[in-house]
Design goal:
The chain is built from 17 helices and 12 strands. With 399 residues, the protein is an alpha+beta fold. A hairpin with a 5-residue loop joins strand 11 and strand 12. Helix 11 crosses helix 13 and helix 12 crosses helix 13. It starts with a helix and ends with a strand. 15% of the residues are buried.
Length: 399
């Protein structure tokens, strides 16, 4: 699969060559320590784009797989393939900020991101009036100090009286004015109900599933390396759980015997989109082969839902969701499609400000077995979503 992917990229060289060299030349790139050979290779190729072969091209900056791919049967470096591999290496270096613009904020002055002093002096009075803040910094600090002392006093009073501040055994929690206290009997009922629920160990469950169907065999090394260390399987499963549950690599490292670096390396080298899709297909095929699935005539139905997540950094899809995160953090919506056997067959990240109904058909029309009925959480009606029909945002269908 990786070889086919590289060949497909090589076939697109003519299209990529129309803009990739110009983009790299126009960025005025600088290299961090250890990445100067990559920057030198970019400049070397820019000066020799009229040649078909590059006898002096440095191969050490490429991975082992690409080093073998860019060389022809006579051991000569083919320029078109070398450019593809070089552009991919430059993309990864730019993402990791190992290559950066000379005028970027990597080593820039933080004051350059603030309002210019002349503009601040002209608008300072207006901002102080709008936000009701004193112009004198000392007066503002004294005001903040008084507010903090007042809040601490109110917190202490509420904790002692149990009126507005409660202690749940682990942390101090607040209560909105007028809210009724939960009876102790209701708390006991919740605790007893939770005690009766079965506790499912996700780690043991994933290990058992992998032992039965070996879905980790569909997660090879992205570079084509065949040998795998004895601990790599455990690292892959831990990385999968960290991503699937939102736990993150740091907290997963604290809960497992693996380090955060090992989990990140396992995810970067094995959990590619193509590999995850192949592993997901194997799991779905195993679910269809279960005895329960073969004896029950399940109606071909699917469902979709979106989950909102805050992001770090900038994204064109990100927007504000006041109900979940206010106006301080931007969020995106991650949509997931599942079939009648709870098997996942599609996912997509969309803008948090867009209606999910506008994207309902995106994964359905690309599914191998398109469901005849699709449901969503914002309507109680089921709608026909076969390729010959169209689902509208309100859940109705039109043939």
């Amino acid at each position: 699969m990786e070889e086919q992917r590289r060949d497909a990229l090589g076939a697109r060289h003519t299209h990529l060559a129309e803009f990739a060299p110009r983009v790299l030349a126009g960025l005025d790139l600088k290299a961090s320590a250890g990445d100067q050979p990559l920057l030198d290779a970019i400049r070397y190729v820019a000066c020799n784009r009229q040649r078909q072969l590059l006898p002096d091209a440095p191969l050490g900056i490429l991975s082992a797989v690409y080093r073998a791919w860019v060389v022809d049967e006579h051991g000569r470096v083919v320029r078109t393939r070398y450019e593809i591999a070089l552009w991919l290496a430059a993309r990864d270096a730019l993402r990791a900020r190992r290559l950066y613009r000379a005028s970027s904020h990597r080593y820039g002055d933080p004051a350059a991101w603030m309002m210019p002093k002349a503009q601040w002096a002209a608008e300072r009075v207006e901002f102080a009036t709008v936000f009701d803040r004193p112009l004198d910094a000392r007066a503002r600090l004294e005001q903040v100090q008084r507010d903090q002392e007042r809040l601490v006093a109110a917190l202490q009073h509420g904790y002692e009286t149990g009126v507005d501040v409660l202690y749940d055994g682990e942390k101090i929690v607040g209560r909105r004015p007028g809210a009724k206290l939960v009876p102790e009997s209701a708390r006991d009922l919740v605790a007893s109900t939770h005690a009766m629920l079965p506790k499912v160990g996700l780690a043991a469950l994933v290990i058992d599933v992998d032992r039965d169907i070996a879905f980790t065999d569909e997660l090879p090394h992205a570079g084509g390396q065949q040998a795998r260390s004895p601990t790599r399987r455990g690292q892959l499963l831990a990385a999968l759980l960290a991503c699937a549950t939102g736990l993150g690599y740091t907290r997963m490292a604290e809960a497992s015997k693996f380090t955060e670096r090992q989990l990140r390396e396992a995810a970067e080298r094995h959990l590619t989109i193509e590999h995850l899709a192949a592993a997901d297909a194997r799991v779905c095929e195993a679910i269809r082969g279960l005895a329960q699935a073969s004896t029950i005539d399940l109606e071909p139905i699917s469902s979709s839902d979106g989950q909102r997540y805050p992001i770090i950094g900038r994204s064109a899809l990100a927007g504000f969701a006041a109900r979940e995160a206010g106006y301080r953090r931007r969020m995106v919506t991650w949509m997931i499609w599942i079939n009648e056997q709870y098997a996942h067959f599609g996912s997509k990240v969309i803008s948090v400000t867009e209606r999910e109904g506008l994207h309902t058909l995106d994964a359905i029309v690309l599914a191998d077995d398109a469901p005849e009925i699709h449901t969503a959480d914002r309507t109680a009606r089921r709608s026909s979503c076969s390729p010959s029909s169209t689902c509208s945002a309100d859940g109705s269908s039109r043939a």
